Amino acid sequence: MAEGTWQLKLPVPFPLRFVSVYLVEGDEGWTLIDAGYDYPSARAAWEAGAAVAGCDLGRDVKRIAVTHFHPDHLGAARWLGERTGAPVCMTEREIPFARWLWGASNSQPFEEYLIRHGMPRGMAEEATGVVRYALPLPDEMVPLRPGEKLPLGENSARIIHVPGHADNQIVLHDEARGILFAADHLLLGITPNIGLWPESEPYPLSRYLESLESMRGLGAGLILPGHGPVFHDLDGRIEELISHHEERLETMRRAISDRPKTPYEVSRLVFRGALTTHQRCFALAETLAHLDHLVLEGRGEYTGDETVVFEAT
Description:
Layout: E1 5-11, E2 18-24, E3 30-33, H1 40-53, E4 61-65, H2 71-74, H3 77-84, E5 88-91, H4 94-103, H5 107-116, H6 121-131, E6 142-144, E7 149-152, E8 155-161, E9 170-174, E10 179-183, H7 204-214, E11 222-225, H8 234-255, H9 263-270, H10 277-296, E12 300-303, E13 309-312
Helix pairs in contact: 5-6, 6-10, 8-10, 9-10
């Protein structure tokens, strides 16, 4: 890890097990990158980890920067903001979106979305309960704008918009030190979930691949991700991720080549094994993103009103 930068692995109550947040020391105070999931184990990990790093959560924190709206990154932002007295910062588009998603009652439309794409009703009801719920957010959040610089330790980091995993996700590039705080955009060992959700902007996989391409040659020698190990070969990992999705697209196309299938049927063929209902929901969303991309490329088409089916072209 770079001098003045600490990684803290916070527990999450689902199969990923941990989310990595970062603490960066500066003369004016510490910057915390992401807040983690809000439950007692994560709060305890914050207290213990910050103490080891030498950061007094009650006095030393200058700002909290949240990369995107998912609850393992944003969930504890209200508690952490109150604990530190520091402002919580997130992109200007993500702030109203997060308030709408986590504050509104979106359960019924979400459940109908899952059913329309082939998920059995009972499973859709269960999935909705674990994926859509109320999430208390800070009363005030400070907007960040892509392209601007965020003070970070003794330097600053350029804010880069990287859609795909989340429409308004950002990463932070400390150009002076060659560090990329990569959030869930670039992971090693696993691939970020690129899903098409009812609230998603169109063609998330296309936008993800474009954002990966734009980061080639960025000049970051240390990549600090939101999950999994730290790594160093940025361009090599970008190439691996692009190749992975090309292979996954071809797998999806083969799955619908013999007869039309619902996205849920395809997800069961592609994502095998004993998955939790939560994982099945994410598998369906990722399948939809790939099938959606096949349609964009003219390699597939979809039909259906009450239940959607895809077929190869």
